[in-house]
Amino acid sequence: MDYMQKVSEMLAEKFDEIPLANVVTFGCAQNENDSEKIRGLLYKLGYSMTDSLEKSDIVIYNTCAIRENAELKIFGNIGKLKALKAANPYMIVAVCGCMVMQPHIVDKIKKSYPFVDIVFGVNALELLPQLIYSCYSENKKQILSPQERTQIVENTPMLRSAKPKASISIMFGCDNFCSYCIVPYVRGRERSRKPENILREFRQLVAEGYKDITLLGQNVNSYGKNLEEKVDFADLLALLCTVPGDYVIHFMSSHPKDINKKVIDTIRDNPKISRQIHLPVQSGNDRILKLMNRRYTIRQYLDIIDYAKQQIPGVTFSSDIIVGFPGETFEEYLDTEELVKKVRFTQLFTYIYSKRNGTKAAEMEDNISHEEKAKWLNRLIKIQQDIVFEHLDSYTGKTVKALVEEKHGDMYTARLENTFLAKFASDTDFSGEFVNLKITGKRGTALTAELIK
Q1: Distance between CA atoms of 186 and 171, rounded to whole angstroms?
Q2: Confidence of residue 33 (pLDDT cuts 50, 70, 90)
Q3: CA pair distance 131, 13, nearest whole angstrom
């Protein structure tokens, strides 16, 4: 708080007008949640937000390390700031997030991007006011080395994106160490927030009118393992559902080895929890899953899918899949196709395997060409597209509840629980509200509907 006061006074002296800040987010929902905290800090310091890089007095790139292509893209974007920095010497250029939790990345920024003023990792967000103050007052770069943290900082101010959606981080880090994943190395080990702090934030969001609230964690199903009190993820879901209001709760991501019948039963018993479950499977073959260190079999995965379908009417699933893992054969890939056809996901996030230095998979022999992997991916995308179209056709004539997200003239776009979009006409503005719709058909990958008043 001392540094926030100092920076506020310094900005008032340095700038004739309100200084502008631009926070650019790369990567996952957790990164976007971090960016909302960064924007909250900047707003408290006296900055106003802008989408214009050219007009910005501070630019912060919140980076992602999940894939090599993401890092290359981010470096390209950082490089473009060199000319803007030269034209505006008072501009601060900062890089934060997962990417700079890797020492070799910090070294590269120091060497190849000397115009970058501030570097800080995912465990140092609340230090931003101090870093800005030191950067201005000492006229010196503030480059923090990657640091681990066990404690959780609460009550960081947040400047959230527009309603009706919001997210809450319920835990940080990951203990799973999947062989392809860099996350445990950059975000650290699992740390769960206390349920009373989550409940307080959740109550505030509902009171402010947020309707679609997503609980975030690298593996939400292991929530509570490091807490002194005996509470698990199902308990947390049930606790949040006691808050009065009109809202829906989503959560991501779930690990198939940790999701259990108690979580499924809690979803069944609480209509405020979405009937769409994101359950990343990654592969449909047991040998590949073992190489990935996923610690479940396809039979175990299908057992929890089957149990959920028995207990929760209308439940649907989305998932993540990696194609072309080192050593994967075409026959093993075909097992993934069969799984997709069996589960019939409503949404699928598919990726070609990307090597991440520092992970065990990076040391495995990979003799499959990128061209071959791309062919497999295209096959899978086509299969999933056909399944989605069949899902859409099945909705014709049904009445559904949906949350209105966008308005274009007298046409509105609303999102169903399973992320499908429906478009309808209305004379009344229902932006940010739940509506009941009768589905009349589909147009492309969206449903058409009539408003039930």
Answers
A1: 15
A2: very high
A3: 18
- The C-alpha atoms of residue 3 and residue 22 are separated, in whole angstroms, by 20
Average pLDDT over residues 406-434: 92
Contact 170, 215 (CB under 8 A): yes
Prediction pTM value: 0.93
Instruction: Specify the CATH number for 308-394; select among 3.30.1370.60, 3.40.50.12780, 1.10.3720.10, 3.30.750.200.
Output: 3.30.750.200
CB 189 within 8 A of CB 172: no
Contact 55, 20 (CB under 8 A): yes
pLDDT class for 432, splitting at 50, 70, 90?
very high
Residue with tokens 């402010």: 208
* Residue 427 Cα distances to 27, 268, 382, 405, 412, angstroms: 37, 35, 38, 16, 10
Query: Token pair for residue 146?
Result: 């990657």
Superfamily of domain 2-143: Methylthiotransferase, N-terminal domain (3.40.50.12160)
pLDDT tens by residue, 12-27: 988 989 999 999 999 8
Type of residue found at 127: L
Same CATH topology for 2-143 and 308-394: the answer is: no
Work out the angle between the directed axes of helices 298-311 and 330-343 (0-180°, nearest 10).
Answer: 10
More confident call, 367 vs 325? 325
